[in-house]
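User: Could you check the structure of this?
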Amino acid sequence: MKNGLYSANFDSNTYDWGNGIITIQENKVNGGDFVCYYQGEIKGSKIILHVTQYNTNETSVFGNIKEFDLDLDITESGSDLIATGHVVNQPQLMIKIKLKFLSDLI
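Assistant: Sure, the predicted structure tokens are below.
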């Protein structure tokens, strides 16, 4: 994985919307949007991403779940990434995250 700043586009099987910013540095992932923040770690071609909803006036990509973990598989497409997976212990809640490389980190 290339360290850097990425734009994130979220598509789930419940709501097809959501955009945010993610940083990857030394296999650590941090990011957020106007509803949630997310933190995790890359291990090989997988990410376990912990998601916490901080803005309760809006709906997250999975509705009213306030805190959850995502089990994601990563594929590289040039300098961009695609992460696909589901909410841990809820495989029916699927997600696809398209990460577009924006810039190196400073």
